[in-house]
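Rather than argue in generalities, we reproduce a single protein record, letters for residues, whole numbers for local backbone shapes, just as it appears below:
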Amino acid sequence: MKTSTHVQLDEDVYRWLTQHRTAGVRDNSRPEIQNVASRFAASLGIKDFEASEGWVARFKGWNNIVKRKIVGEILSADESSVEPFKQKLRAYIVANNLYSYQVYNTDETGLYWRSLPEKTLAMRSEGCVPGRKVNKDRLSVMMGVNADSTDRITCAIVGKYKKPRALQHCMDRMPVKYYSSQNAWFTQEIFLSWFHDVFCREAYGSGSYLCYERLYTKKMLNEVLVVLPLPEDIELGVDNRARNKLQNLKNYTIKEAIYNWAKVWSELKESTLKNSWEKLLTSTVSNEEDAETDFEGFTDEIHGMFRNAGENLERQDVVDWLEKDDNDPG
């Protein structure tokens, strides 16, 4: 195998990956490794580097990295500090006589807003269709909510372009606050702008973002997947659902993504938001059972959607796809 031509970059990415695994983060997805490698390359001043799929494969080979499923919480992010932090937070809330509606949490995440599993027929045929790839589009999202789930802060979304074509006529009336940066990542300036202009104006937790991404994914699939062949295709005796799905995916713009994201945020159940605070603010998780059943059967439902649309995917393919951006920090 060809050896690395950028030894320092390889070492930096491997160190980052090792630190994430040590902290209990699940195996990082290929797109996330590509994003991190590109950022490190830019910081090192490397001009001729491309974090391609081939590079990721070679990187894993150089460092003997294999994908294994981590069951449960084998690794942990410094568990010894969790309980002291919870006690300190509760003491602070009591000392300052704060109510749950006055305690807020914000979290950021990466969102691949226009993607399908790589093994779908649409993605397999994408390589044969001229034009840009449609499964690389990424946004960063910031969410905020108070502990009793009565106040949901307007989301901040960061894209690559200052004025995307699909948003040119609605920039001033979007249901989110849109920002842009070179790599669609949050910067200190963007966060402070959102904090002062949005958060501080609207505000007078935590595990929910993962549920939120799942709901967005389902909404996107409802607009992209083609369950039945078109009438003209039936007459000709052909099945062009893969081609039609790919066209739907190309027509699915950042505008649809942002509006769907905002709609899901407004429709997220209060019980789901409250459950995301339980382990932090209470000694016992009284609603833990409800939290588990909120998304019971979700993976099977999504798998069924793909099967109904003519996709011969295994359930594990769907699991891997749903987890692709779980650890993207935004």
